[in-house]
Amino acid sequence: MAMDLIATKGFEGLRFQEVAHEAGINNATLSYHFATKEELILGVMEHLGREMQQTPGRPAERPVSAREELRLEFESVGRLLLKRPKLFVVLIELSMRAMRDPVTGNAVNMMDEHWRQHLTSVIEQGKREGIFRAGVDTETAATVLMAQIKGLGFHALTGKLKPREIERAIAEAARQAEIWLGLEGET
C-alpha cells in the first residue's frame, strides 16, 4: 500500500492515515509496526528489495551459466518494467530522497551494494567459465551494468515507452553487455 502511495504521490504525499486506510488497518496498528515515517520507508525498501531480487525463469534443476544469469537479470528487469512499473517509480523516489536523507541513503547504498555483489559474482563466474574476458574490470563492469539497467528503467518510465519498445531496448542492452563482456570483444 505504501509503495503504491509513494509511486503516485511521492514521499511528500505519504501519510500514515492513508497507508493505514489503504491497508485496511487502523493508525495504531500501523504505528505499532512502523513507529516513524522513516521506519515505514525502510519497510517499503525491504519489500522493494525482495521484489527486485526475484528472478523468474531460473531453472531449479541445474545451475545456470553466467551468460544465462546475465540474460535473466535483464529479462527480469524487463518483466518488472512491464508488469510493475511502479517499482521503478519508487526506486527513483528513493534515489532522490537518498541524496537528502542519510537514513534512506544508507538503505539505498545497502541495496545497491547487494546488487553489485550479485553482478560481480556473475561476472567472476563468467571469467571462470571462459565466456567473459579475463581482462574485464569486474567492479567497473558491475557498476556499468547497474547504471545501464537503472537508466533503462528511468528512460522507460519518463520516455513513456510502449511495451514493445521496452522489450527491444532490454534485449539490445543485454546483447551489447554480452558482447562487451564476452570473448568476442577481446582484441
- Strand % is under 5%
CATH topology: Tetracycline Repressor, domain 2
Envelope shape: elongated
Largest sheet: none
The percent range for helix content is: over 70%
Name of the level-1 CATH class: Mainly Alpha
Distance between the termini: 51 Å
Question: Could you give me the name of the CATH homologous superfamily?
Answer: Tetracycline Repressor, domain 2
Q: Average pLDDT across residues?
A: 85
Name the structural class: mainly alpha
Tally of alpha and pi helices: 9
From N to C, what is the helix and strand string? HHHHHHHHH
Rg (C-alpha, Å): 18 Å
Q: What would you say this structure looks like, in words?
A:
This protein has about 190 residues and is mainly alpha-helical. Helix content is about 75%, strand content about 0%. It has one domain: Tetracycline Repressor, domain 2, CATH 1.10.357. The chain has helices spanning about 1-10, 15-25, 25-35, 35-55, 65-85, 85-100, 100-130, 140-160, 165-180. The mean pLDDT is about 85.
Short description:
This protein is an all-alpha fold and 187 residues long.
Protein topology:
Layout: H1 2-9, H2 16-23, H3 27-33, H4 37-53, H5 66-83, H6 85-98, H7 102-129, H8 138-158, H9 163-181
Helix pairs in contact: 1-6, 2-3, 4-7, 5-6, 5-7, 5-8, 5-9, 6-7, 7-8, 8-9
